[in-house]
């Protein structure tokens, strides 16, 4: 249990207030909305309550403001201690005071400018009157001044400006957009009269955004940062969410109910009684989804907090779950040189590795705090109430984790996930795993974190373990190969899901075995071959346990049974790096010895990883010369990769003792994804033959996998 004085100081942040001219609503007001049957439509809303600082606090801060309007973190911390306030409260008071002084200064300047404007207007009227009465000295008639009127001159200037703007935009469009989609072949007559829109995106660098593709209509990119008026309410919401997370992480029954798959789920009725305010009642059409898990991971608490608060590291470590993420604004960087008190507004898109499961988009605030016993906590909570979105299909109630430091660089992590989501668009074969919480729940987040911590520990090892093959001759070469594999995995995970940044097109309306394709343009990126890249993916169910499917696909000895491109050649493992306790977590370098001696041998970089919630087998052909540079410790960022591979999920939480007869009885959900360079010239047109070839390749691979695993399962 946390110290009561600390909890009192936490609750004070819910009453962040300004001076006389800057009053704000309390957290109780913003979140105390009646829900369900408790709401009376005829009842008049309660009168809003306001809170103020004490006169002494205002006097002291006013005096300090005169000496130093911009106090640093140390000064704010000292002042907050003297006045009995939180550093965030002091920070926002000074922000509001500076805003007030600026507004007063602007009002004074506006009054001066208004007087000047009236003076000029009067002079202008006198000139107009004088001009209207002017006469021609030659004929005595009205004078023709020979110059255009003011309105005409203004219209000419505006017209020239608009023309220049049109020319500029046209130039940008011609440079970056390229040819219109109409320049692609019309495939509709060949594909069951379905219109095919294969949007070609550019693989350029995206400022501040983690993710590989970009569309102008993207919902995540349309969200802007919070306004100044929103910020105090965001602080109150974050503090309330932190208190709720602590209680959720530490409470037992009746708030949490054990599930038969060892995961705790919330008792929703008890939750509403315990937290009556929250972020408001659940919107119609949304389903509650909650889970809690705990585990010990091999990483110290400082590094864990840094991963969670740095959007780039967070997206990289959880690349299988976070398809894209962005920090909109950092409201506080924390105090005392760490993330204690850090507060940032973010957007993120969460995914399952399949185009058959829609992603979940969230607009939320993330708050980090170190508590009196040394435990760290990081909480997320949606900000939909500040900016209601009628099409929002997912919102996060207080979710996050508690991190407790353990000896020898280990940490105990308790993870809580609590969301409300509209998942009616999920494909039928994925419904059991999504409804069970395995797809987006706490168990998947924590299993991914545990596996990635093991991988990071392996990558930082200074010695080469005995299990690694001798092709890797130096620690530098080992690190370079792991870094290259990490980029390959991230690229695969970002491109295989149903992200709104993807322009997937279905080629055949036959059900779950639909093959979905999209084209992407790769230019000016040393990490990818230049040209038109065609991606194809499909998901299907097989009556085989996930572990058996994973072992079959990662084994180089069975590769010839499904890999058409190896052409029946012998596959030999040239290098092996173990990066986890499970033997399946490893990075390998494979050589495919072609049966045709006239063909050159091919190298394949492969990473396989597995945990309780899913598995991946991801691979990419690599150039022999480039791979030699990597093995000698060279920079892996310049090795061109087009990753393909497999994502394997359990088909649900249940594992029957008998045979696997239907979805949800212990089988596997398998996603197959390929990326192929169809033309090395970026402006080239996509041919129908290329689409047909990739379609045939993925269909044939699926049939080979089904035949092989069913034969082995018999």
Automatic annotation (TrEMBL):
One of its GO terms (molecular function) is DNA-binding transcription factor activity, RNA polymerase II-specific. Residues 44-104 form the Homeobox domain. Residues 98-133 form a coiled coil. It comes from Hibiscus trionum. Keywords: Coiled coil, DNA-binding, Homeobox, Nucleus, Transcription, Transcription regulation. SUPFAM superfamilies: Bet v1-like, Homeodomain-like. GO terms for biological process: cell differentiation. InterPro entries: HD, HD-Zip_IV, HD-Zip_IV_C, Homeobox_CS, Homeodomain-like_sf, START-like_dom_sf, START_lipid-bd_dom. This is MERISTEM LAYER 1. Residues 44-55 have a biased composition (Basic residues). Residues 46-105 bind DNA. Residues 1-26 have a biased composition (Basic and acidic residues).
